[in-house]
Amino acid sequence: MTFSEPSTPLPSTNSLLNSLKSCIHCGFCLPVCPTYKVTGSEVESPRGRLYLLKHMLQDAKNESDEPNEHLQPKQIEPHLSQCLGCLACETACPSGVPYGDILHQSQKMFLTQKNPFIRHLKRFFFQTVLPNSNLLQFGAFWLRLYQKAGLQRLVRFSNVLSLLPLIQHYEALIPPIPQHKPFNIGMSFGNPEHERVALFTGCIMDVMYNSVHWATIKALVNNGYYVTLPEQTCCGALAYHGGEDDIAKKLARKNVLSILRSQPDWVITNSAGCGSTLKDYTKLLANDGIYAEKSRLFSEKTVDIMALLAKKPLKPCRLPIPQTVAYHAACHLHHAQGIINEPENVLHQIEGLTLLPLKDAAFCCGSAGIYNLEHPELSNDILAEKIRHIEATQAQTLVTGNPGCLLQITKGLQENANPMRIAHPIELVAESYSK
Q1: Which residues pair with 398 in a beta bridge?
Q2: Distance (Å, rounded) from C-alpha 80 to C-alpha 50?
Q3: Do both 358 and 420 map to the same domain?
Q4: pLDDT higher than 90, residue 110
């Protein structure tokens, strides 16, 4: 196994300090912060993290002769790393503090504080595994065999993994792996004279929730769009949120070049995390002389499937969906992209469907990319409250627009032996056109 040498440039201290000064420590972020709500600790809140980061940078800039009295990176990094990056604080902040940008810059700053082996292993995963659909499908094959052969049922029934709590936590996150219905580059669906959309299939989304892509195509074609499948790769979200910008930029350039070549009117995503990152290509490639303008155009064309369908009334449904449904608002849809009412507005148009209110619908479920792998205990504590609110709705179906949320909430409901269906909202739209 070989690793590329990390080469992520460090952010400017002055730039970070200027951003940090916009925080007035009002505390509006506290009640919406999942880690603060669970721990009750100020240093696990947005306000507390910004305070620590600001004083560390100020101490470093003053170059004091007594560094032992000052905050050191190793003291700050654990608190920054426990942030989910849900951006609920940005939505609540009256001062417009760019918390997401500050978090991203600090992630790059603290890369040297990470365990070198773990960091290189993650980089290998980000740049070699996720962009390689063959490797992902190979892994999915063995997971599918593990489930189909009854091994998963046996392992869970025997409770043998209780001896290895961390492995048990990881295993519980494995969703049912469906038979993959592959896409081929250049495939198209619908009438070529209609508005042209390029479907972004992603990596984990395509492996774990391939059926959502087919539902997306069905819904789009039935609503008068021409769908194309251009060449593409992983969006780079995990690398980007981990501060590994060099990997994220490489993947971004590939996607911008390949997808724009197909001349789409829209670039469609059905994964909140992917959509948020694709829109951030403008920031990521802002200083790239070749790709800056291309990335701006690309990001402007990128839109979530539910936001696109909300732009005009749905075509009449052929099949009523007589279900009670609760909607969980994925963080990177609601907070990062500002897509708040559109999914429910679309769902309201499905005949027979009844939307039930979900308390704190936009509160994080604890998934947050690979957060539930790196911080399982805190993630589970955050999930527990989300599951309580979901179960209180007594809905037949819970819908959400992000694969991480689907995985996390499925785990929570399974552990409570709750048979509630979990789906992407576009699946219900597609089902209404089934006849």
Answers
A1: 326, 422
A2: 9
A3: yes
A4: no
- Full residue range of the structural domain in which residue 76 is found: 13-113
Same domain for 299 and 345, yes or no, is no
User: Does 159 have pLDDT greater than 90?
Assistant: no
380-388 contact pairs (CB < 8 A, 24+): 380/169, 381/38, 382/34, 382/35, 382/37, 382/38, 382/84, 383/408, 383/409, 383/411, 383/412, 384/412, 385/37, 385/360, 386/328, 386/360, 386/412, 387/412, 387/413, 387/416, 387/418
Q: Same domain for 240 and 129?
A: no
Q: Are residues 207 and 305 in the same domain?
A: yes
How many domains does one find in the chain? 4
pTM score, two decimals?
0.91
- Measured at the alpha carbon of residue 298, what is the angle toward residues 292 and 302, in degrees to the nearest 5? 145
The average confidence (pLDDT) of the chain is 91
Residue 317 lies in a domain: no
Beta 266-269 vs 302-304: how paired, if at all? parallel
Residue 5 lies in a domain: no
- Residue 178 is assigned to a structural domain of this protein: no
Q: Per the structure block, which two tokens stand in for 345? A: 């507005």
To 10 degrees, what angle do helices 403-415 and 165-172 make? 120
For 386-403, how does the pLDDT look when each residue is reduced to its tens digit (9 = 90+)? 999 999 999 999 999 999
Half-sphere exposure of 86 (CA within 13 A, CB side): 30
